[in-house]
Amino acid sequence: MVQRWFSSATQEENKTELLTSRDSAYSNAISPRTNVNSVQVTTVSGDIRRMLSKEALPFSAFLTDTFGRRHSYLRISVTEKCNFRCQYCMPEEGIKLSPRAELLSTEEILTLARLFVQEGVNKIRLTGGEPLIRPDVLDIIAKMREFEGLKTIAVTTNGLNLARLLPGLQKAGLDLLNISLDSLVPAKFEFIVRRKGFHKVMDGIRKAIEMGYNPVKVNCVVMRGLNEDEIQNFVALTKNMPLEVRFIEYMPFDGNRWNFKKMVSYQEMLDHIKQEWPNLERLPGAEADTVKLYKVPGFQGQIGFITSMSDNFCGSCNRLRITADGNLKVCLFGNSEVSLRDQLRSGATDEELLQVIAAAVGRKKKQHAGMFSISQMKNRPMILIGG
Ligand SMILES: C[S@@+](CC[C@H](N)C(=O)[O-])C[C@H]1O[C@@H](n2cnc3c(N)ncnc32)[C@H](O)[C@@H]1O
Ligand code: SF4
C-alpha cells in the first residue's frame, strides 16, 4: 500500500484528512525518517507549506512541483506510428520507430495511468503518433473509464479514421476530442500532411458534432506561407458549427525545419482576425487553461490560441507526459526524461514509482527556455512526444 500524504477522495474526506494529518504529513516531509528520497523531501516540504497556507483542498505532493504547480493532467502517447506525415511534426525521411518490445503494453499503460489517477490526475489525453491506429485504444479507454477520480478522457487525433471509430470510442467513454486540421483546401491539406484524406477528416469532424461532442476542438498549426491565409476561413467555420478552432503557434522540434519567420504569432493572428471581426470577444478561461479563448458574437462556436512560443503559459502548466516508450516528460520543451517503463519492468512497487515520478516533477523548471533556445535544443520530434 502506498503511503499518501493526502487523499484525493471526497472534499469532506480531504478536509478531515488534512486536519488530522497536517502534523504528521509535515514532519514526514521534513524528516529523513521517512522512506522518501532526498529530492522529494525538499520538494514536498515546500509544497506542503504552500498548500497549508493557500489551499483548503490538498493535492498529491508527488505531483506538485517546487513552484506549487499541481499536475492533474496526464498525456499518454500510445503509439509512435502515424498514417500521416505532417511537415511540422516529423522529418520528411520519417523517424526510427522503437522496437515493439520497448513500447508500453496495454497493461503498463493502465498501471501507470491508474497510479497517476490515484494521486489526483483527473484528466488523461491519449495522443501519439496517431492514437486511433493502436488496435487496443477502445479497450484502454474503457478500462480507464472505470478509474475512480478520472473525470475526463480525451483524444487528440488526425481524424482520418474517426468517423468509423467514434461510435465505439464514445461507448468506451471518450469525453473530449481534438481533431487536427491545418487547411480547408484539400490539395493544401494533403501537401501539409503528405498524405490523402481531407474528406475523411471532415467526415470525422461532422460525425463528432452529430454524436454530441460540444465543442469539437479543431487544432490548426499556423505556418507562414502555408495556411496563414486561411485563418479567417477557419474562424468562419465557427459561425454555424459548434467548433473550437485552436490556432497553434508553430513550435520547433527535432527535424521539423522550424524557423522564426515561419511562425505566425498570436498577436499577428489576432490582428488579422480583428480586421474582419473587430468585435471579437475574449472569453474567460479556467486557471490552468493553455488556450486564450475568443468568440465572434453570435457565432455558435469559438476560437482559441495556443501561444506556447510568443506568450508561454508555463506558470499554470499542469501537464505531464508519458511517451509511447514509457518515458515521463515533465515539460514539452525539456529534454529531461525518466523511464517509468524500466522501473515497471524491474518490478518497482507503486511507492518506488511514485518516488521516481516525484523526483522528476521536483526537477521541473519554472519555465521553458524560450523559442530560440528551444529551436537549438535537442528534443524528440513531436511525433515521438505527442503534443
Ligand atoms: C503530435 S499530434 C498527435 C495526435 C494526432 N496524430 C494529431 O495529429 O492530432 C498532436 C498535436 O500536435 C500538433 N503539432 C505537431 N507538431 C507541431 C508543431 N511543430 N507545432 C505546433 N503543434 C504541433 C498537431 O497539430 C496535433 O494537433
Ligand atoms: S501531427 Fe499527428 S497526424 Fe501529423 S504526423 Fe504528427 S502525429 Fe501524425
What is the element layout, followed by pairings?
Blueprint: H1 11-30, H2 38-54, E1 73-77, H3 106-118, E2 123-127, H4 137-145, E3 152-157, H5 162-172, E4 176-180, H6 186-193, H7 198-210, E5 216-222, H8 231-237, E6 243-249, H9 266-276, E7 281-282, E8 291-295, E9 302-306, E10 319-322, E11 327-329, E12 337-339, H10 340-345, H11 350-362, H12 371-376
Parallel strand pairs: 1-2, 1-10, 2-3, 3-4, 4-5, 5-6, 6-9
Antiparallel strand pairs: 7-8, 8-9, 10-11, 11-12
Helix pairs in contact: 1-2, 2-11, 3-4, 4-5, 5-7
The chain binds S-adenosylmethionine and iron/sulfur cluster.
S-adenosylmethionine binds at residues 82, 88-89, 127-128, 130, 156-158, 180, 219, 221, 248, 250-251, 253, 256, 382-383, 386-387.
- Terminal Cα span: 33 Å
Beta strand %: 5-15%
- pLDDT < 50 runs, ≥5 residues: 1-56
Class by alpha and beta content: alpha/beta
User: What's the overall geometry?
Assistant: globular
Which kinds of small molecule does this entry bind, naming each only once? S-adenosylmethionine, iron/sulfur cluster
How many helices? The count is 12
* Overall helicity: 25-40%
Biggest sheet strand order reads 7-8-9-6-5-4-3-2-1-10-11-12
Rg, rounded, reads 21 Å
Would you report the number of β strands?
Answer: 12
Summarize the main sheet. Answer: 12 strands, mixed
Q: N-to-C SSE series?
A: HHEHEHEHEHHEHEHEEEEEEHHH
Mean pLDDT: 84
Pathway: Cofactor biosynthesis; molybdopterin biosynthesis
Subunit structure: Isoform MOCS1A and isoform MOCS1B probably form a heterooligomer.
EC number: 4.1.99.22, 4.6.1.17
Cofactor: [4Fe-4S] cluster
